[in-house]
Amino acid sequence: MLVESNVDMQNILRDNLKRKGFRVLVFSDPDRATSRFDQDDRPADCIVFSTEDLGESAVVAFNQFAVHPRCKNVPAALLLGDHHGDWRKDARVADHRAVIQMPIRLNAFCGIVKKLAERKKNGE
User: Fold this and answer.
1) Torsions phi, psi of 112, nearest 5?
2) Distances (CA, A) of 54 to 40, 95, 97
3) pTM for the complete prediction?
4) Tens of pLDDT along 94-111?
5) What is the pLDDT of residues 30-46, one digit of tens each?
6) Under a CB-based contact definition with an 8 Å cutoff, are residues 6 and 12 in contact?
7) I need a surface site. Which of 35, 72, 101, 123 has the fewest CB within 10 A?
């Protein structure tokens, strides 16, 4: 699952992730994305919150996701835009929660997402 409000960035990330074999569900609103975990048992193996257009609200949503009863064990990544590196210190990270700083190569980004998603499938 990808949470990004910029349509151009949504398309870039969705298309590239699809080429790497991922199925991608995109939301522009972090609250709507989180609510899917209340509605469905397992709507996604991993969720990526992007600060590119959402800004600091993506960090807030990433951190709220970490304490949400139905979401806290779901692998998650916070994708920080080029100029958002200072927000890394505010992110709640864990073994199943990562921060990814832009710029990043597509293969590296997909590798991190795949590793996080596999943790959910393996029950880690």
Assistant:
1) -65, -45
2) 24, 24, 19
3) 0.92
4) 999 999 999 999 899 999
5) 999 999 998 887 899 99
6) no
7) 123
- Other CB atoms closer than 10 Å to residue 1's CB: what's the count? 20
Distance from first CA to last CA of the chain, Å, rounded?
19
Distance CA 52, CA 55 (A): 6
Q: How far apart are CA 39 and CA 68, in angstroms?
A: 13
Spell out the residues 6+ positions from residue 106 whose beta carbon is closer than 8 angstroms to its own: 16, 20
Place of tokens 């692998």: 75
Beta-carbon contacts of residue 3 (< 8 Å; ≥ 6 apart): 26, 27, 28, 29, 30, 33, 47, 48, 49, 50, 54, 58, 61
CB atoms within 10 A of CB 97: 22
